[in-house]
């Protein structure tokens, strides 16, 4: 969720969207994790919210892989 | 003894005046009041599973109305008043027991917040008292109020009219009453899509065929985002597992309901004798009805801190429900940008207590295509206007 480049330029709707609305899928969900009890590194994960199975792991700088 | 069949099980017809999506407590109450208060009986309540097998069957049944803000006091107190006459209205025992609720304070800030909330409650006509530790002990002798514990009890708010009810009985009684008034209750019928034509909701597609309707009212709790999305509607909701547990059956030992925000546990004793304890949500969002173990562990640790006497009790079972959490911990109710599509969601961890109240107000909203005055502050548009009803923490909001 990137911070808007020009927050003051947003309409109330757009600002509300930025503040309060997030994906909430039943299925594949991209999120950022921190391995806080270990190496303390940040990394990206695609998790299936139906089963909590991890479908993909990738570095923050990488783009989300296509899962076949 | 229960009669064999309490409600007609119906086959879906091709068309209804109103379709309610979700046969939890809220969907059933809505159908009941649509029929009873508004004479609208051409109604189907659809559920993907069996009747009231979602959060309605999984909650810890705490009923109270001692919320901080005027808007919340309005809807929850309306619900509590309805609870007080519901057994008689539905002609069925609900085991509604007004045994009171204590919300414990463990820090100076807790005390200040609690006293403030008591005053706010009284202004709104909600019964509320501030109790000193000795008085807490009088209401609930098994709470440890000694000063030496890690989170000493510095006092508590007390709402005597709060209590518990038997959730299954509530669902069955509402289902029977709605069914008797002509409502179709249709189980194992998952809504897979809401059809929108020219900005109006016109039909649902389901695992048992397409059904058209004049009005479509969502009441799908943790799955509301998924259903709303098929109508092109994004909602500010996150879905999380919420866990609870019960002990084996014990002699009556716990006379009230005790909640503690600081150590995060809430405990009551069911009529049958189990201690019923609720935890917090899992931090990660998930639709899997299984929560993380460490949540249960810290919940039990919190319970033991407050109730040393529970040390020898055993856990009988734990479970989770899937709850829809909104940004300000208040529900989202009312009209949507899609005509004829109505929204009741975001009750998160605390919607059981509202069951009759929301059924009443949601039915009104659907019947008149206008928000009921008590739910008008809870519209979706508040996330644009900024008029939030922030009950996070402020009102001991866990339940
Ligand atoms: C562990 C736990 C403890 C809780 N404790 C309390 C408490 O002490 N006090 C309190 O006030 N609240 C409590 N709650 C919250 C309360 O249970 C919920 O806020 C409330 O039950 C939500 O309303 P409902 O009964 O209609 O939901 P539900 O019973 O979850 O009903 C929603 C229904 O929608 C159905 N559905 C979903 N998707 C579809 C679809 N696509 N098509 C058809 N049907 C669909 C589901 O199958 C479900 O039956 C607790 C919740 C949990 C999980």
Automatic annotation (TrEMBL), chain B:
Its EC number is 1.5.3.24. The keyword Flavoprotein applies. GO terms for molecular function: nucleotide binding; sarcosine oxidase activity. It is found in: Cytoplasm. The keyword Flavoprotein applies. InterPro entries: FAD-dep_OxRdtase (IPR006076), FAD/NAD-bd_sf (IPR036188), Rhodanese-like_dom (IPR001763), SoxB (IPR006278). GO terms for biological process: tetrahydrofolate metabolic process. Residues 18-62 form the Rhodanese domain. Keywords: Cytoplasm, FAD, Flavoprotein, FMN, Nucleotide-binding, Oxidoreductase. Its cofactor is FAD; FMN. One of its GO terms (cellular component) is cytoplasm. It catalyses: sarcosine + (6S)-5,6,7,8-tetrahydrofolate + O2 = (6R)-5,10-methylene-5,6,7,8-tetrahydrofolate + glycine + H2O2; sarcosine + O2 + H2O = formaldehyde + glycine + H2O2. Belongs to the SoxB family. This is Sarcosine oxidase subunit beta. It comes from Acrocarpospora corrugata. The lineage of its organism: Bacteria, Bacillati, Actinomycetota, Actinomycetes, Streptosporangiales.
